[in-house]
Design goal:
single chain, mainly alpha, globular
Length: 71
């Protein structure tokens, strides 16, 4: 999931490294091998969805915890 080929733009560009790290950690948890060069054309759609869905789930949990701390 290379940031350069994606049309999505980060609201906070400084978060790029943290998001990439999260991607590799989640892939590792599910036994999915990602290529260090950033090209992952061999991934099955299901594998990519697993990684993306779990990134989203993790980010939502982080936001909920942060919002709960404000109350």
């Amino acid at each position: 999931m290379s940031r350069s080929s994606s049309r999505n733009q980060l609201v906070v560009p400084q978060a790029n490294a943290a998001l990439d790290q999260m991607k590799y950690e989640i892939a590792q948890q599910f036994g999915i091998q990602l290529q260090p060069n950033g090209y992952n054309g061999q991934l099955l759609t299901r594998e990519a969805g697993t990684i993306g869905g779990n990134i989203t789930r993790t980010l939502v949990q982080m936001a909920e915890q942060q919002l709960a701390g404000r109350s």
